[in-house]
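Example (one chain per record):
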Amino acid sequence: MRQRPKRKNKISAGYVRNVVCAINIRQRRHGHLSRRARARA
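Predicted structure:
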């Protein structure tokens, strides 16, 4: 699994969140959500 960086900066946090949201939206549009994405959403 991906390790969480020790130093939290808002830019990377927002970037990761945007990427996750984009992945969730893309998968939802296709109608199949992975287990991780469903847990995230």
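Caption: Residues 10-30 form the longest helix (21 residues).
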